[in-house]
Amino acid sequence: MPALLDDAQIAARLAELPGWTRAGDEIRRTLQAPSFLAGIGLVARVAEAAEEADHHPDIDIRWRTLTFALSTHSEGGLTAKDFALAAAIDRLAGEAGCEGAR
């Protein structure tokens, strides 16, 4: 099982992921897709990455606005799995041309 990260570890990892913020026991990021269909395509690619990692985000879709929330529910907080998937979401969002993606 993945180990919970402490506050210092979480802060250090967040510093490596601009655009992600902490909200209690989860990290969140909101992005703007170039179109509704591009956003849905990104969600599909994130779903594939999540399945491969066996770690699934909460995703909110509001037209072109996508919000991703990550937490390791089985551990009751944030683990390395959350930050690895966040990095994958950033990479995929960049490929999809989302505003705010690096």
UniProtKB/TrEMBL annotation:
Catalytic reaction list: (4aS,6R)-4a-hydroxy-L-erythro-5,6,7,8-tetrahydrobiopterin = (6R)-L-erythro-6,7-dihydrobiopterin + H2O
InterPro entries named among the record's database cross-references: PCD_sf, Pterin_deHydtase
UniProt entry keywords in alphabetical sequence: Lyase
GO function terms (MF aspect): 4-alpha-hydroxytetrahydrobiopterin dehydratase activity
Enzyme Commission numbers on file: 4.2.1.96
PANTHER family: PTERIN-4-ALPHA-CARBINOLAMINE DEHYDRATASE (PTHR12599:SF0)
Family of this protein: Belongs to the pterin-4-alpha-carbinolamine dehydratase family.
Record HAMAP family: Pterin_4_alpha (MF_00434)
Name of the protein: Putative pterin-4-alpha-carbinolamine dehydratase
Phylogenetic lineage: Bacteria, Bacillati, Actinomycetota, Actinomycetes, Streptosporangiales
